[in-house]
Design brief:
Helix content: 25-40%
Distance between the termini: 34 Å
Strand order of the largest sheet: 5-2-4-3-13
Largest sheet: 5 strands, antiparallel
Radius of gyration: 21 Å
Number of helices: 10
Shape: globular
Amino acid sequence: MPAYRISKLEMKALEYIANMPEIDDSLLADALKIKESEVKKLRTKLSKILQWVVVPNYGKLGWELMFVVYSTMPPRKIPPADALEGCTHAYTSPEYFFATGFAQNYAELLRLYEKLCIDLKMQKDHLHLLIFSHELTQLLRFFDYQEVLGKIAGNWETGVRDAAREEGKALDPITRKILFEIVHHPAADVETLSALVGIEKSTVRRKRSFLKKQEYLRPAVSVNLKALGYAGFAFYHLTAGECAGKGWPLDATGTPPFFAVADRTNAFLLVPYTRLDEIFQMSVALTTSSKRMALAVSIVNYGYFQFGECRKLRENDYISVLKRSRNFMFGDKVESAIGKPERRSSKINPGNRR
């Protein structure tokens, strides 16, 4: 049974907010056909199961790699959250470990991976590392709960979207500082951001609009899946053989994944479940679907994290990744000098949706 009984009106509001995180009370009231005063009460109730976040477009900001690490055995040691450098999300359970994050280059990634092995007291043979470079990544759904909410409400349309392939350019220091504070304080208004950065509100307003329009960041909501009645989430590591590149049967799970990333040879996804038997059923569905589509796809590993047993080591920690970059280390004074723009590739883009 769900830990929180959600009404049809609340479910409909959740759908609107997930699709338009910055929707104001007036528009939401019109969409739901209720009074604006009722919307405020509704938001208060939904705050129990929602967290507003701002997801940076790391690819466009200069990060070259996304990584996934997982293990089908528990770590021998649980490190503190601040030790999981480069990770935006990390979970552990009595049987499994999973983390994902971003690295600016291969050298940094190898350092992060070796440190993680030491901190977890695990051998490299037991801690699987999947590397997804911008040039090779085909698909991405990054902790995106829109389809999950749509499935509950009966409005789910299948299809894992291609990652965007636009390029970015280097931002000036003031714009970077504003982006940093927006990610650090997702609910901050223009006046608060102005005080944090120390510049005029008009400049903050203009640059914040630029960052959103150019898709350097994406306002989003993180949903408490347990409150929606899910028992946990399963992970699946798929690999492709000679038919690599023809596609992945990622929608075969029935319940849409809220995380999915793939290149020509590997795919990894996270899917919520309500019953333990669904985990095996989804693995069978993935295998059967790949055969029907004539794809040489097989499941390398799969497992699950059950709410109540798993431990969140990191979740939606986007600011810690930014802090690792010199471009987001600020002194007392933010210089406004702008260097020569640098073209960036951005195929892996958790901060952008089509």
